[in-house]
Design goal:
This protein is α/β, with parallel strands linked by helices. Helix content is about 40%, strand content about 15%. The strands form two sheets. It has an eight-stranded mixed beta sheet, sandwiched between helices. Helix 2 packs parallel to helix 3 and helix 6 packs across helix 16. The longest helix is centred in the C-terminal third of the chain and has 18 residues. Bound molecules: adenosine-5'-diphosphate and magnesium ion. Adenosine-5'-diphosphate (ADP) binds next to helix 6, strand 12 and helix 14.
Length: about 425
């Protein structure tokens, strides 16, 4: 059921079968199945358990709808279904459990979509037409099979440290220099600069995805993403600021899933506030780039974010990148040495401050890495991209997570480093 893209194999199959737990769902589905021209006798009771029993002795339909409501362990039972369901079937599930982790696990195990009860006709129509579209159209871009997908996330410890600048530049380098098909996902939904930096219109793709996560699939990605070059596609938004973002994070997870299928690399520009709200966004991220600078506030927030990552995304390699570093001899609020001792680990990369190149990049609407390719700052960004790729390919050990268990305790030590004037006010 993981490979629903083989329409040719489906000629001898029933178009549709449903295994439901209650009459009201059956009553809801029958007229819609009739509209689609599907035989109604394949709508049965018995939920997931009956689906497993039936499919173990008969051919799988093209579209399978299963009710998980009576399942005590939906994920385990879906595993049993996967054993008997033939490849090429698009599986849609429904149930009462509203939990993004379950959703994620179900999608990972090959379910196309999970529709939360109570169901409504519109939602079903939409899910069924999408399933049909998936059966009809193979995906255009397929990730290359020999290299696993590489997902990275850029987190700025504070606004203005240059996280978005570096994210767009690295996405551009991966696509243009390393020739890897790359998705650039800008999750700053209201104020994102992913499209702006590359001189593109963001379009409505990301906003649509948040409003209608059920629509997200390979075709959606294909249509909604804006192409920056042959190998780079961007999903970014300038959502209206009179509207709060209403989402449980499902859309973001779905987008990551689809990008994993369609591209070789995904670069996520991840605003720090999103971490607190949707920690699951980092579950699939192999390398997290923590972008910071040598200021007091950024040092405090580096400590806090590194500690958060250690607790919530221990699988992700962390690279600490200090950006906007002035030339040697020019004072910074915090010295490199004090910064490193505060965060209890070495800095992985230093990127110099270069106002001239930053201005040039903004004026030309081109990524900083492209404009500054012969400058020191451009070389530093190339080093960052190379370092990320080596970590992902397993050639270089990432600095990994912080060893100490008491990083947050460091906040007190760190405060002791503050210049005396900070404490003398009393
Ligand atoms: N190394 C640098 N030298 C000079 N300016 C920089 C550098 N890195 C980023 N900038 C500039 O800093 C500003 C903020 O960058 P941005 O990437 O939007 O930060 P963030 O996403 O962390 O809030 C932008 O105007 C950008 O051009
Ligand atoms: Mg930003």
């Amino acid at each position: 059921m993981n490979a629903p893209f083989n329409p040719r194999g489906s000629t001898t199959r029933e178009p549709f079968a449903a295994f439901l737990c209650d009459d009201s769902t059956a009553d809801l589905i029958r007229p819609i199945a009739a509209e689609m021209g599907w035989p109604l006798e394949r709508i049965s009771k018995g939920g997931l358990r009956n689906a497993v029993t039936t499919l173990s002795v008969s051919a799988s339909p093209s579209i399978l709808f299963v009710d998980l409501s009576e399942s005590g362990d939906p994920l385990n039972d879906i595993g049993a279904l996967a054993e008997v369901c033939e490849p090429g079937t698009v599986v849609l599930a429904t149930g009462h459990i509203n939990d993004v982790r379950l959703y994620r696990d179900l999608v990972n195990s090959g379910i196309q979509d999970y529709l939360l009860k109570p169901l409504n006709p519109e939602q079903l129509r939409e899910a069924f037409s999408h399933a049909q579209m998936l059966l009809a159209a193979p995906r255009v871009t397929e990730a290359s099979a020999d290299r696993p997908h590489f997902m990275s996330a850029f987190i700025g410890v504070r606004g203005g440290v240059g996280a978005s600048t570096l994210a767009s530049s690295v996405a551009w380098l991966l696509s243009e220099k390393q020739k890897r098909s790359t998705a650039f996902l800008d999750l700053d939904v209201h104020f994102g600069t992913g499209a702006l930096t590359l001189d593109l219109e963001p379009g409505r793709g990301l906003t649509d995805a948040i409003e209608n996560p059920g629509r997200i699939d390979g075709l959606f990605i294909e249509r909604a993403m804006v192409k920056a070059n042959e190998k780079l596609a961007v999903l970014s938004a300038e959502a209206p600021i009179n509207q709060p973002m209403i989402t449980d994070g499902t859309a973001f997870f779905q987008l990551q899933e689809e990008m994993k299928q369609a591209f070789e690399c995904t670069v996520v520009d991840l605003p720090r506030a999103m971490l607190i709200q949707f920690p699951h966004l980092l579950y699939e991220v192999q390398t997290t780039i923590v972008v910071t600078e040598l200021t007091l506030a950024a040092t405090r927030d580096s400590i806090r974010i590194l500690s958060w990552l250690k607790a919530h995304a221990p699988q992700s390699n962390v690279l600490v990148v200090v950006n906007r570093v002035p030339p040697a001899g020019q004072a910074t609020e915090i010295s490199r040495k004090d910064f490193e001792s505060s965060i209890e680990r070495p800095i992985d990369l230093v990127i110099p401050y270069d106002a001239k190149m930053a201005v040039q990049s903004a004026k030309l609407g081109k990524p900083l890495a492209e404009v500054a390719k012969s400058a020191k700052i451009g070389q530093a960004i190339v080093d960052l991209a190379n370092r990320m790729v080596s970590v992902s390919d397993g050639n270089v050990e990432g600095a990994g997570q912080v060893a100490s268990k008491s990083l947050l305790g460091k906040l007190t030590d760190f405060k002791a480093m503050l210049p005396a004037k900070k404490t003398k006010a009393s």
